[in-house]
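Throughout our pipeline, every protein is held as a single compact record rather than as scattered files. The record that follows is passed on verbatim for readers who wish to inspect the format.
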Amino acid sequence: MGDEKQHDDQEKTILYIRQGDPKDGFAEVSISPDKLSITANFYPPAATGSFLTYPNVVGKLEQNGITAGILHDIIQETIFKTNTTHTPEKNIEIAKGIVPVSEIPEHFVIRKDLVERKPEIDPNALKIDWHAISAFSIVKAREPIARRIEKVPGVLGKNVYGEETPYQVKTMPAFSAGANVIDHEKGLFAGKSGRLSISNDGAITIEEVLLLKKGVDFTTGNITFPGDVILQGKIADGFKVYTGGSLVANDVVDVTEIVCKKDMIVQAGIEGKGRGALRVGGTLSAKYIQNCKVAVRGDITVSGSIVQSKVYSMGFIRMGDSGKLVGCECIVIGGVKAFDIGAPRGTKTYIRCGTNFTIQQELDIANKQLVLFSVKLQRAEEAYKESPDEKIEHAITAIKQKIAETNTKIMSYLPNIDTNDAAFIEVRGTIYPGTELEICHVPYTVTKLQKQIVFRLDKTKGAIVSEPYQKD
């Protein structure tokens, strides 16, 4: 090519541009492998050589097919600087192609908190409750799951030779709406409340049933789930379970705190270790209950025994063929059907029937508050006698107002607390002396061992009477 030469290399193409004589100024031009950029080194002439000129450089570039993206102002400025300072100027970009813009296909971006599940731990906290760190992503109905990102079209590029260069299509995570997930123009939304699950192929589903194959422990954290829970393992000590549906367990359930909005079915037993609390919004079925506080809106069915527990029900307590109530406190509206009640020795068994335990609990709280207010009133009045003061006088007035309000509340509870005077206590086996019974606040203490007997309320006598048990 005369005063310029070109050769191919794996990394770049080099092009030399001269004025003519070897002593003249020249440029060493490098073309990037992707043909999207050209850089040049500019050198001044020797003592008797000629200056490199702008028309010569541009002309040689065009002769070699370089017609696009030429940075004319930079070339002129650099040549002028080289010629006036007589120093080389290196790595100057003199041509720049148009870089293609990748196409981004339509896709979904899932909420960060639903996929990472990293616990937010307060570094300043004195103690971290590791039980509360859940391994599950739980969503509510109509809650957003993922944003829809519209397609961003790709843009073709152009290299320094004026040739179009293709764009790439980015690969995005392929998520799609599965069961119980709504595909909306704005994104993906939960069709129902439940556990978020993502399959290997990206299908997002909401599971209405939570299966806990290994139980509840530090790998799961406390369970708060809006649907049904199937428990195939044990609940480790200190862990809590809240379910908006039913709870089915095939192992012994160790209760720290369990709230079940619907039915609870336990194929084995329930153990509370004296401090566990269980609340069930439907019915409860178990093999046995031991050392636990249990409150159930429906019936309680226990095939074995209820021992050293506090059991409250808005329905019936039904025991199995050999079911025993030992050392318990039971408050039920419907009644009790058991084989044995009480024991020859040990803690007494106390059964109250026909009573709404929820109102009884409110009444108990109100009575405790009344006692506290009365004590405060007494102290305030004594203080006022010793040193009359306007602040103390206002305090006395406020306490009296609270006492009046509490008394009004108590009076409203009393007519509604005993709701079933037809309640009864059925004993198919033995009831032991010392057992205390109560039907609609009418008390009865068992003074001797009795067998196969039913206790009822005789409203005309205002007393509890007994009659022989008749098998259905």
